[in-house]
């Protein structure tokens, strides 16, 4: 069976044929590839075609696919049993590694996904502050727990409506929205309701609406507001943790949040999330404290082994060198595209790059939507035909791994040369 056959069959038994929506490739007028294997920077589909992968499972595979040391760690752990429902030493090791990497994190709780991490961090912030409202940045993604699935309603930035059927109005009534990078809007929200706000949750670098970097002073402004009003600052570092820098975006920008959420890279490709922060807050989590949070498979030895192996290698990986290579590659890609008379913005940060087909720099969600999605679809399809696997949406960031070689970049640029708009 080829990808089309698998997709046809999958659509009859899995909603939309996929287990997470964007994989269906609707945004780019395509069908998904069904993947048979991945090695380093490359993946191979069920038809045996190889692609240079710039999705990397949406972030986790910073070391590339099936890194030998990570694979060995998983195999060795699996041979000893995959879950005990009782503590195991690897949980302590991974917790120590996370705490050592981020000074703001003094205690950490493992969960199974980024969604669980943000959901639990919000619950904790609400319990600590005895307040219900919280603010999220418009265009930031914090997983699919109900309180985060709010869309901006008409009129005021502060008015939110459910972003999907199935979420009651009441559940998002306490979700306040402020455009990412708009400190004045955030200040206005706090001036009006600051005494009722439990937390700001934000992606310190917005990497779920393409790639939007924080404006100078934005993150510090959020920190100051939280301090002034007694709210908690939650950095959702599910993407940026161990990617923006080993110590996350908070190390890079020098801001210390109260709570941090993790996922993706800390699981080394297995399902993991985590949340952590200052002891005074984390001590409130059950059973030390009264805030309930639990998970049958949380901290299982298999996922812990993958995370430990991944972070061990990342500790000595040259982030600066990769960042320099990605910046050079992205600049060349932008030049190749601009030579074709299409408008291009190409923000980069660390090992992320994002082609927006737009005349103007992209600083917020509204700017993101000024980009030309049709041009992106043309680009996506022709790149894929030439063996380049980009995220199937104009609003997703490109991911690069330590396994990507100069040859991978050269082949990608050659493919871009061939694209006709
Ligand atoms: C991916 C992501 C999540 C959700 O993580 P899942 O493991 O998919 O539940 C939350 N926040 C951010 C910033 C993410 O990128």
Describe the structure.
The chain is of the alpha/beta class. The chain folds into 2 domains: 3-66 and 318-418, Aspartate Aminotransferase, domain 1, CATH 3.90.1150; 68-314, Type I PLP-dependent aspartate aminotransferase-like (Major domain) (Aspartate Aminotransferase, domain 2), CATH 3.40.640. The chain is built from 14 helices and 16 strands. It has helices at 3-13, 68-78, 89-101, 114-129, 169-172, 183-193, 218-229, 248-253, 279-282, 301-315, 319-338, 365-368, 373-385, 406-418; strands spanning 35-39, 42-45, 50-53, 107-111, 133-138, 150-152, 160-162, 175-179, 197-202, 232-236, 259-262, 273-277, 348-349, 352-353, 388-389, 398-399. A 7-stranded mixed sheet has the order 4-12-11-10-9-5-8, sandwiched between helices. Strands 1-2-3-15 form a 4-stranded mixed sheet. The protein binds pyridoxal-5'-phosphate. The site of pyridoxal-5'-phosphate has 14 residues, from helix 4.
**Which strand order spans the largest sheet, edge to edge or round the barrel?**
4-12-11-10-9-5-8
Count the beta strands.
16
Alpha-carbon distance between the two ends: 32 Å
Alpha carbon gyration radius: 21 Å
- Round the mean pLDDT to the nearest integer and report it: 96
Number of helices: 14
Q: CATH homologous superfamily of the largest domain, by name?
A: Type I PLP-dependent aspartate aminotransferase-like (Major domain)
Largest sheet report: 7 strands, mixed
- Under the CATH scheme, the architecture of the largest domain is 3-Layer(aba) Sandwich
- The oligomeric status of these chains comes to single chain
Here the CATH topology of the largest domain equals Aspartate Aminotransferase, domain 2
Cα shape: globular
Ions, cofactors and other ligands present here are:
pyridoxal-5'-phosphate
Can you write the helix and strand succession as a string?
Answer: HEEEHHEHEEEHEHEHEHEEHHHEEHHEEH
- The level 1 CATH classification of the largest domain is Alpha Beta
């Amino acid at each position: 069976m080829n990808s089309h056959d698998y997709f046809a069959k999958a659509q009859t038994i899995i909603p939309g044929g996929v287990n997470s929506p964007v994989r269906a490739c609707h945004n780019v007028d395509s069908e998904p590839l069904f993947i048979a294997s991945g090695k380093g920077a490359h993946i191979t589909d069920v038809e045996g075609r190889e692609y240079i992968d710039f999705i990397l499972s949406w972030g986790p595979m910073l070391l590339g696919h099936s890194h030998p040391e990570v694979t060995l760690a998983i195999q060795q752990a699996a041979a000893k049993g995959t879950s005990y429902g009782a503590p195991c030493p690897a949980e302590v090791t991974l917790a120590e590694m996370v705490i050592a990497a981020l000074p703001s994190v003094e205690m950490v709780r493992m969960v199974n996904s980024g969604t669980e991490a943000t959901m639990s961090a919000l619950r904790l912030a609400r319990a600590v502050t005895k307040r219900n409202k919280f603010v999220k940045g418009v265009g930031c993604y914090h997983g699919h727990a109900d309180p985060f699935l709010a869309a901006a309603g008409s009129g005021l930035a502060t008015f939110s409506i459910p972003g999907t059927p199935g979420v009651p109005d009441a559940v998002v009534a306490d979700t306040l929205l402020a455009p990412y990078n708009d400190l004045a809007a955030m200040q206005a929200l706090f001036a009006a309701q600051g005494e009722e706000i439990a937390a700001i949750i934000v992606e310190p670098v917005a990497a779920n609406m393409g790639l939007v970097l924080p404006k100078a002073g934005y993150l510090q402004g959020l920190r100051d507001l939280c301090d002034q009003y007694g709210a908690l600052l939650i950095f959702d570092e599910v993407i940026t943790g161990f990617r923006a820098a080993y110590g996350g975006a908070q190390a890079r920008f020098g801001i210390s949040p109260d709570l941090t959420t993790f996922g993706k890279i800390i699981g080394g490709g297995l399902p993991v999330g985590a949340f952590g922060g200052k002891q005074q807050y984390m001590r409130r989590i059950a059973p030390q404290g009264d805030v309930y949070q639990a998970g049958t498979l949380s901290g299982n030895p298999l996922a812990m082994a993958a995370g430990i192996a991944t972070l061990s290698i990342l500790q000595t990986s040259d982030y600066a060198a990769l960042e320099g290579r990605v910046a050079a590659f992205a600049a060349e890609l932008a030049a190749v595209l601009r030579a074709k008379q299409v408008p291009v913005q190409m923000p980069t940060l660390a090992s992320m790059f994002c082609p927006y087909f737009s005349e103007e720099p992209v600083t917020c969600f509204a700017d993101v939507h000024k980009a030309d999605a049709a041009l992106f679809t043309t680009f996506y399809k022709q790149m894929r035909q030439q063996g380049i696997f980009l995220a199937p949406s104009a609003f997703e960031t490109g991911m690069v791994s330590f396994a990507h070689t100069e040859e991978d970049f050269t082949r990608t640029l050659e493919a871009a040369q061939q694209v006709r708009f």
